[in-house]
Write a structure and sequence with these properties.
By secondary structure, the protein is mainly alpha-helical. A three-stranded antiparallel beta sheet has the order 2-1-3. The chain is elongated. It comes from Streptomyces apricus.
Length: about 130
């Protein structure tokens, strides 16, 4: 590549092990992101924090700056494994650069007899 070219150097290639992207870090226990958790960038204009980001973390920040994406979508757009994306997100959250919205827990199934009793009561009261 000549000096005149302005092409961005790709730092992650198939020859670079994935632990290099995460600086050898593991996912902290308190950051168990589900694949449906939504992430977005905070309104932080810290140039120092942005300069300290790895190319992969910067790519994640670019993706989530203007809205919410799920963890799985971030993984798909960056072509990084889900585990690596979770570690990058944990680093970004610890640095205060992103907000994470946990998925809404599934409601427990209501008993069919209880629902039938409520429906019968409504039919009796309103004559439907």
């Amino acid at each position: 590549m000549s000096e005149g070219q302005d092409e961005e150097l790709e730092l992650t290639t198939p020859l670079v092990p994935l632990f290099v992207i995460t600086n050898g870090r593991d996912l902290p226990a308190d950051h168990e992101y589900e694949h449906t958790a939504l992430v977005t960038a905070r309104d932080v204009t810290s140039a120092a924090a942005a300069r300290a980001l790895s190319p992969e973390a910067r790519k994640v920040m670019d993706l989530i700056t203007n809205g919410f994406l799920s963890v799985a979508e971030v993984s798909g757009h960056t072509h990084l494994p889900l585990g690596i994306v979770r570690i990058l997100l944990a680093q970004l959250e610890e640095d205060g650069l992103i907000l994470v919205r946990k998925p809404i827990p599934r409601v427990e199934r209501a008993e069919r007899e209880l629902l039938s009793a409520v429906l019968d009561g409504l039919r009796t009261k309103f004559g439907a």
